[in-house]
Amino acid sequence: MFIASSTFTIANDMAPEVRAAFINRPHLVDNAPGFIKMNVMVPQDNPNEIWLLTYWDAEESYLVWYRNHMKESHAGIPQGVKLVPGKTKVRFFELVGE
């Protein structure tokens, strides 16, 4: 299993709007070949930080989706959201056991 992790911190007072956007997301990725699931998390000690994890059957499935659909999947981001510079991070993982 391949996991893509994105973390970012919201710089302005729009964390509630960003959370609502994830709750009401259009689920565009859900039917992508190889997509397994998505988790969106907010640390209790920093409500302006968002962690997004997407789970895929293989890295290639993620890369195909990323190349073809990343722009449309971000269309629901609320206008005016500002991120803390240097706090955005994308990391990739291989699940080795459950």
Structure write-up:
- The chain is an alpha+beta fold and 98 residues long.
- The chain has a single domain (2-94), classed as 2-Layer Sandwich (Alpha-Beta Plaits).
- It has helices spanning 15-23, 59-73, and strands spanning 2-9, 35-41, 49-56, 89-94.
- Strands 2-3-1-4 form a 4-stranded antiparallel sheet.
Could you outline the blueprint of secondary structure elements for this entry?
Elements: E1 2-9, H1 15-23, E2 35-41, E3 49-56, H2 59-73, E4 89-94
Name the features:
2 helices, 4-stranded antiparallel sheet, Alpha-Beta Plaits, single chain, 98 residues, 30% strand, alpha+beta
Second-tier CATH architecture: 2-Layer Sandwich
Q: Using DSSP, what is the number of strands?
A: 4
The unreliable regions are none
* Form type: globular
| Strand arrangement, major sheet | 2-3-1-4
User: What profile does the largest beta sheet have?
Assistant: 4 strands, antiparallel
Give the helix tally.
2
Number of domains: 1
Determine the strand fraction and express it as a percent band.
25-35%
Distance between the termini: 11 Å
Helix vs. strand class = alpha+beta
The CATH topology label is Alpha-Beta Plaits
CATH class: Alpha Beta
**What is Rg?**
14 Å
Kindly state the percentage of residues in helix: 10-25%
**N-to-C SSE string, H for helix and E for strand:** EHEEHE
**Integer average pLDDT:** 90
InterPro entries: ABM_dom, Dimeric_a/b-barrel
Domain ABM: 2-92
Protein name: Polysaccharide biosynthesis rotein
Pfam families: ABM (PF03992)
